[in-house]
Design goal:
The complex is a heterodimer of chains A (about 300) and B (about 120). With about 300 residues, chain A is mainly alpha-helical. Chain A has helices at about 1-30, 35-75, 85-95, 95-115, 120-135, 150-185, 190-225, 230-235, 235-265, 275-300. Helix content of chain A is about 85%, strand content about 0%. The two termini of chain A are about 25 Å apart. Classes of the chains: A mainly alpha (about 300), B mainly beta (about 120).
């Protein structure tokens, strides 16, 4: 059952981060531009984004349900319990995890409804708000709810900011890849100029998101691991170190993109050469991001290093 | 670049496949203390954990050397102390008693364990 839990967590994280990341990308990258080219780009983006959202919302709902069953199995101690409606309802309504999960399943339902409802003009803000709620509410369950009083409040707030920043950066890489793929296509001349405008905006946002991720990640590490010895000496600490390593590689890649590829993209006459290099690099960054999510999915099922009392 | 990626993903997968069912709410201390001797029959056994518990999925039983239950049934989590679990006891005669607990912490992870205490006037 541990595998079901881990895979459900991974799908849940990935779906929610991608939908929110795309919605935010639309806002800071495309929505405020009023040129004809970017208006056309926005129409094409919205058509793609709608498909991403409906798939993402379905994945979020289904993985949310399978996660509920895996947690029920865990809590009740047997796989048959996951098939017992009474036990499932006890988990949903009588545990702190369940009370949060009810809301999250509702948000996922509403997100699917938003995609299908005929409210074209209000759809994008609704998707952004619902995906934001789905994202930050992940901070209301799990390790962040450990501890008492002020520590717990600080930890949960910190975790919400961490998730938000992860959504902005990791999630933003997906629409960035979509845009670069458009610009690389044979008929992509107009898209190259869109990319020249939008990539610097993503880069600006990226600075803030990476800084937030590092700061909130450091606070989380302090709260859950507590010491350098625990970071090196406990299984949780070692796996967290792998996550930090993967994150660092991503940051190095992002810096290479920013200081080597972005100037080329802006300087040269519109061509697809720097776009191709950037697209490959961003794709690799995205794969690393997925590996980070896989590590996170496992970490949530392990006891934090701070709980190992010399054992 | 892709070779590095394959190594990283494989490494992650290998770690993910490792056994991962450690639990999160550990027994911090108990009264009567774990393995202790007390002179008279205690009215209750109290267990303190390292984390807040889910009442719906946390239980404790106490039994004597013959395996007979000597507790008064349903364990309680006192109001305002969500990391504490209490269970009432019948009047006990001298002997060794086994406390068996099974709890779920608020981060959804189950743990279980046992310990004994002794009544020796």
């Amino acid at each position: 059952m541990a595998e079901v839990l881990i895979v459900s967590r991974l799908l849940q994280f990935a779906a929610v981060i991608v939908v929110f990341g795309c919605g935010a990308f639309r806002l800071y990258g495309l929505a405020f531009d009023t040129t004809t080219t970017s208006a056309n780009a926005l129409v094409a983006f919205d058509a793609w984004f709608w498909r991403v959202t409906i798939v993402g919302a379905l994945v979020a709902l289904l993985s949310g349900l399978s996660l509920l069953l895996a947690v029920t199995t865990n809590m009740a101690g047997s796989a048959t319990a996951a098939l017992d409606p009474a036990t499932i309802s006890t988990v949903l309504f009588d545990t702190s995890f369940g009370r949060v999960w009810c809301w999250r399943l509702l948000f996922a339902f509403l997100l699917i409804g938003t995609c299908l409802a005929p409210l074209a003009r209000r759809r994008m803000p609704a998707i952004l708000v619902l995906s934001l709620l789905l994202l930050v509410s992940l901070g209301w369950v799990g390790h962040a709810v450990e501890g008492q009083g002020v520590t717990s409040v600080v930890h949960q707030f910190n975790q919400m900011v961490h998730l938000l920043a992860a959504g902005l950066w990791l999630g933003g890489l997906v629409p960035l890849t979509w845009l670069l793929a458009r610009a690389r296509s044979p008929s992509g001349a107009a898209w190259i100029s869109v990319a020249r405008d939008v990539v610097p905006r993503f880069s600006q946002m990226g600075y803030a998101a990476v800084a937030l991720l590092a700061a909130t990640g450091a606070i989380n590490t302090l709260l859950l691991v507590g010491s350098v010895e625990a970071l090196a000496g406990t299984p949780y600490g070692r796996l967290l170190s792998l996550k930090i390593l993967l994150f660092s590689v991503m940051v190095v890649l992002a810096l290479i993109n920013r200081f080597r590829l972005l100037p080329r993209l802006r300087r040269e006459p519109p061509s697809s050469a720097p776009i191709g290099a950037l697209a490959r690099s961003v794709l690799f960054e995205q794969a690393l991001g997925f590996a980070v999510l896989a590590v996170v999915s496992v970490l949530g099922t392990w006891p934090p290093g701070i709980h190992h009392h010399g054992g | 670049m892709y070779r590095i990626l394959v190594v990283l993903v494989a490494g992650t997968a290998a770690i993910g496949a490792a056994p991962s069912v450690w639990a999160h709410a550990f027994l911090d201390h108990a009264s009567p203390a774990v393995g202790s001797s007390v002179p008279a029959s205690p009215r209750v056994v109290t267990l303190w954990f390292t984390q807040d518990l889910e009442p719906a999925f946390s239980s404790v039983t106490v039994s004597d050397e013959a395996g007979q239950r000597v507790d008064l049934g349903k364990a309680q989590i006192p109001q305002g102390n969500p990391e504490e679990l209490q269970i009432g006891l019948k009047p006990l005669t001298p002997g060794t008693y086994l406390v068996t607990w099974h709890v779920v912490s608020v981060d959804t992870h189950p743990t279980e364990g046992t310990f004994t205490f002794e009544i020796k006037p």
